[in-house]
C-alpha cells in the first residue's frame, strides 16, 4: 500500500503556497529597489536645493523671478519626497504613496515649466558671468559626481516614470485582501496620469520645434505655420503632374494635420534666401479625398490623386515605398481631421419639429403669415449662398434674366470673404 500524498489536495495546496511565496519574493525585491532608488533621488534633490536654490537666494546672484523660472517647485518636491522616503523605509508603501499623490500638483507645475527652465538656464549661463562661474564651482564639488545642473533638473520627470513601473510591480504582487492593495491601485492611476502629461508635453514641444523649423525654411513671414492646434506630420519631394501632360516638376511638400503646403526652392544665387523655399499653394485637408492611381508608373514608384473642393492634384514619386508612406499619412491626417469636425447631435435635436399645429392655424393666422415670410427670406438667403459658393467666374444660371423677381447683387456688393489663414500671403489658398 502506497502512502504517497494525493496528487490533488496536498500538491495543489503546495503549489498555491509556492505561488504566494514567489509573489512575496518579487514584492520584496521591488520594495527594496524602490527604497534604494528613493534614497538616491532625495540626495540628488538635496544637492540642487542646498547648493543652488538656497545659496543663490542668499547671495542674490539671480533675481527671484529668474530663480523661480529655473527651479520652479523643486524645493516643495524635495519636501514631499522626504516624507515619502520616511514612509517607504518603514515599509508603509500604501499610506506613503497615498499622501504623496495628494501633492502631485507640484510635479504638474514642475513638468509644465521644464522647457522654460531649460531656456532660462541657457540664457543666464551665456549672459551672466557671475552665475556661470558659480554654476561651474558648484558642479565641481565631489558630492555632484560630475553631474551637471541641467541633468539634475530633469530628475523629477524621470522619477515619475520610475514610480509608475515600481507601483505596477508592487500592485501586481500584492494580494487583493492586503490593506495596501487599494491604496497602491489608486496611486498607479494617479501617477500614470502625470506620466502621460510628461509625454504629451514632450510631444507638444517637439511639434513646436518642427513648426518653427518649417517657418524658418519658408521665405518671408506672410505664410503662418505656427498656428495653435496644428501638428507637423512629414515633408519631402514629390513630382506634380500637370493636367496638360507636360513634364512633371519636383516640388517640396509639407504635410500638417490640417493643410498640405506646396513650395518651390528659391534661387540659389539669392543673397539671403538661397537655402529657403517659396510657398506656392496651401491645400486644406478638410474636404480632401485621396486615391491611388495605378497603371501609369510601369511598376516603378507610384501616383496618388488628391481632390479638393476647388482643385485637383496628382503627385508622383519614383520610390514606391515613399509614395505609399505619403498615401498612408494623408489618409490618417484626413481621417483624424474629419473625426474632429464630426458634430454629434442629441436625439431630441434630430427629431423634426412640426411647422405648425392645428390650434395655431385656427387662432393665429397673422403668425402663420409671418412664418411664411420668414421661410421665404431664409429660402432666398440659401439660394444666394448656394450661388456664391460656386466658381468665381459667376456664370449666369440657365433662364436667368434681368427681369427676374430676385435681383442678384453685383460682384462688388457681395459680402466680404472670410479672412484666409495667411492674409496678404503670396500663397494660393484653395
UniProtKB/TrEMBL annotation:
<dbReference type="GO" id="GO:0030335">
    <property type="term" value="P:positive regulation of cell migration"/>
</dbReference>
<dbReference type="InterPro" id="IPR001849">
    <property type="entry name" value="PH_domain"/>
</dbReference>
<dbReference type="GO" id="GO:0005886">
    <property type="term" value="C:plasma membrane"/>
</dbReference>
<dbReference type="Pfam" id="PF00621">
    <property type="entry name" value="RhoGEF"/>
</dbReference>
<dbReference type="GO" id="GO:0005085">
    <property type="term" value="F:guanyl-nucleotide exchange factor activity"/>
</dbReference>
<protein>
    <recommendedName>
        <fullName>DH domain-containing protein</fullName>
    </recommendedName>
</protein>
<feature type="region of interest" description="Disordered">
    <location>
        <begin position="348"/>
        <end position="371"/>
    </location>
</feature>
<dbReference type="InterPro" id="IPR035899">
    <property type="entry name" value="DBL_dom_sf"/>
</dbReference>
<feature type="domain" description="DH">
    <location>
        <begin position="26"/>
        <end position="201"/>
    </location>
</feature>
<dbReference type="InterPro" id="IPR042987">
    <property type="entry name" value="ARHGEF39"/>
</dbReference>
<feature type="compositionally biased region" description="Polar residues">
    <location>
        <begin position="420"/>
        <end position="430"/>
    </location>
</feature>
<dbReference type="InterPro" id="IPR000219">
    <property type="entry name" value="DH_dom"/>
</dbReference>
<feature type="region of interest" description="Disordered">
    <location>
        <begin position="384"/>
        <end position="430"/>
    </location>
</feature>
<dbReference type="InterPro" id="IPR011993">
    <property type="entry name" value="PH-like_dom_sf"/>
</dbReference>
<feature type="compositionally biased region" description="Basic and acidic residues">
    <location>
        <begin position="348"/>
        <end position="359"/>
    </location>
</feature>
